[in-house]
Amino acid sequence: MESRQILETIQMISDENLDIRTITMGISLLDCIDSDPKRANQRIYDKLMRSAKDLVKVANEIQMEYGIPIVNKRISVTPISIVAAASNTDNYVSFAQTLDKAATELGIDIIGGFSALVQKGFQSGDTKLIASIPEALKATSRVCSSINVGSTKAGINMDAVQQMGQIIKQVAAIDPVKCMNLVVFANAVEDNPFMAGAFHGVGEADRVINMGVSGPGVVKHALEQVKGQPFDVVSETIKKTAFKVTRMGQFVGNVASERLGVPFGIVDLSLAPTPARGDSVAEILEEMGLESVGAYGTTAALMLLNDAVKKGGVMACEHVGGLSGAFIPVSEDAGMIKAVEAGRLGLEKLEAMTAVCSVGLDMVAVPGDTPASTISGMIADEAAIGVQNNKTTAVRVIPATGQKVGEDINFGGLFGHAPIMAVNPSSAADFIARGGRIPAPIHSFKN
Amino acid sequence: MKIIITVIGQDKVGIVAQVSAKLAELNINIIDISQTLMQHNFTMILMGETASDKADIEGIQNQLTALGGQIGVDIRTQRQEIFDAIQKL
To answer: Where would I find the ACT domain in this sequence (chain B) (predicted)?
Structure first.
């Protein structure tokens, strides 16, 4: 019996916030398609209730037996724009309500997949789904929506970029907090277990279990032991820590998959911060020697962190997937909030960081009077970073209706708060109004 | 089923006796035991084995947690496989 290792494991869980962030069951809804929307909804409801009936129970059992917290139980489904396209209806709100109803009855925290993939163009279902987003988010509490507007292979659909700026404004007009459930992607991945961007890709099996593990606190604690040492040591330390964290995800995923009788998909090792003290990605970067996140050197520190996390995680599990890396959501990270409030971190630096983090501009509150075309400009820039660099990028911004820079938007309960960040006042309106498609970059032609 | 029981708290007379008595009552065989003082904290790790692979681990946890409350120490009960998964190749 290795007492030291046992105590280390317990300390990782109890003091350093190591947890399974999410166990997400991906469920294909392709066999629920029906020309009658009522029948399609009934089939979706039935399949969800049948497929995930034991998910919460099994997750709770594992949590109890092994003493590992499993924070969220989630479901991702086939993009509804595909599932609903054959149904004779122009309004997809009923589909969102069906997802919400099933999630509520199953005890699922969040359900993702009110989604459309429009990187190269719109099919009829995509257009209807995008138009339904504001009302769908208003009518539901657990549904997440994501739209993929660009990819390295297809380029950037600038009509979609323009439209999503307007949709985000419409959602914010209903309730800015609802913007937390809406994300715009480039290079979206089909097996991501994290929200708001999870959907079940059409290339996936009928059902699959994906795990998301987290533990910024564990990485920070490990780095505290190598103060002042060169980056070779920093990288090695992060790799070893990431390895252990990912092993836990692989183990729990195996157990869950066996008990549920559902194939195990991937482990997504993402350092996902929470507003809790000691659960911050910003604090890891600061532990490397930066006075505050936002200082020159932040992008380099984040690049090293993101890369070392992937390298450590890859060997620890059978299949790595999802987004795997470091998330930098502003409002969910105590260190990020502090840096913004102190004037040490602005949108420009944040954008640079998104070129090397695992996702993008995430949980960023902007003034309520930010024009739709400016938000579209942000989406276009993020998509460009992703498309050009073969990585996933995303925008999840929250226009704080009626509020200005310097104020604070409160999300209520566990979701914390976000300082409203200054936006460049120059207009992108004429640029965004052009529409069309930005062609795929030259390095996408690999065939 | 193998379980790891960790007992952490302020040192005092009779912790080992009371915990092992409770394990005997629950029909859990002690396979390995180690005890040390870490930063003035009493720290004991026990590896136990339940008689059946389908043991009611939740019931065991509840009883041990209650005992910990009485003695004034923190008692944690977890299945053993998780430690191997995280720490061993």
So the answer is: 4-78
Q: Please, which pLDDT band fits residue B37 given cuts at 50, 70 and 90?
A: confident
Taking residues B17-22, report their average pLDDT.
Answer: 95
Return mean pLDDT, chain A. 95
Residue range of the domain that includes A59: 23-186
Q: How far apart are CA A416 and CA A209, in angstroms?
A: 29
Judge whether A444 lies within some domain.
no
**DSSP-assigned beta bridge partners for residue A182:** A145
Domain count, chain A: 1
CB contact under 8 A, B87 and A244: yes
What pLDDT does B52 receive?
87
Q: How far is A63 from chain B (nearest CA, A)?
A: 10
Question: So what's the ipTM on this one?
Answer: 0.88
- Using an 8 Å CB-CB cutoff, list chain B residues near A7: 6, 38, 43, 45
A6 touches chain B (CB under 8 A): yes
Contacts of A12 in chain B (CB under 8 A): 86
The two tokens of residue A168 are: 């985000």
Position A423 in a domain = no
**Complete DSSP assignment for A109-177:** SEEEEEEEE-SS---HHHHHHHHHHHHHHHH-SSEEEEEEEEETTTEEEHHHHHHHHHHHHHHHHH-GG
Residue A398 confidence (pLDDT): 97
Q: What is the pLDDT of residues A103-128, one digit of tens each?
A: 999 999 999 999 999 999 999 999 99
Chain A: nearest CA to B13, how far in angstroms? 22
Kindly identify which residue of chain B lies nearest to residue A62, measuring between CA atoms.
B79
Amino acid letter for position A222:
A
Report how many Cβ contacts below 8 Å link chain A to chain B. Answer: 55
Q: Is residue A422 part of a domain?
A: no
Partner A contacted by B83 (CB < 8 A): yes
Residue A66 placed within a domain: yes
Domains and their CATH numbers in chain B: 2-87 (3.30.70.260)
Count, residues in chain A: 447
β-sheet bridge partners, residue B46: B5, B33
pLDDT for residue B53: 85
CATH code of the domain in which A45 resides? 3.20.70.20
Query: What's the pLDDT tens digit per position in A263-310?
Result: 999 999 889 898 887 899 999 999 999 999 999 999 999 999 999 999
